[in-house]
């Protein structure tokens, strides 16, 4: 079975590629999860974050943005303590808490974060037809636009490269290469919910 060239043979990575990456997400809690994880990845490999995903889930209240937005210094200290299994970087932890509040503001204003996010692409994923992973860009004009808007709204750790990785993860853009076994099903079902 042919997969995108970036997939390691580790079962965790294969499962992520086969079952999640590029699948359109419309669930706000899942969208917040990927925002926390993609922001935490800055400067690290996605595999490093993927291995810590369950720890992030526990540490960040099952990715409930309202609960995370209420975190204070006590929770921050616990997240940065020696026993913590997440990436212990104060700026990233504080960004996740800050971003939770901004995420909740958008939910209140737009009815859901999904409504807001998917409005950038008129509700339909951008389906690319790359033949090789080397063709996949690190950022696009749309990720630059979203990054600027998010930064103006007060989000942190949301540069255009992180935003593009986020867009790929939640299926706003579908970048499985055409030879990948996932390409046909995802390219042909852009209404997947």
From TrEMBL:
Binding-site list for Zn(2+): 4, 17, 176, 180
Sample GO molecular function, one term: DNA-3-methyladenine glycosylase activity
Record-linked InterPro entries: Adenine_glyco (IPR005019), DNA_glycosylase (IPR011257)
Gene3D superfamilies registered for this protein in UniProt: Hypothetical protein, domain 2 (1.10.340.30)
Protein's GO biological process: base-excision repair
Keywords: Metal-binding, Zinc
Name of protein: DNA-3-methyladenine glycosylase I
The organism of origin for this protein: Alicyclobacillus hesperidum
Gene: tag
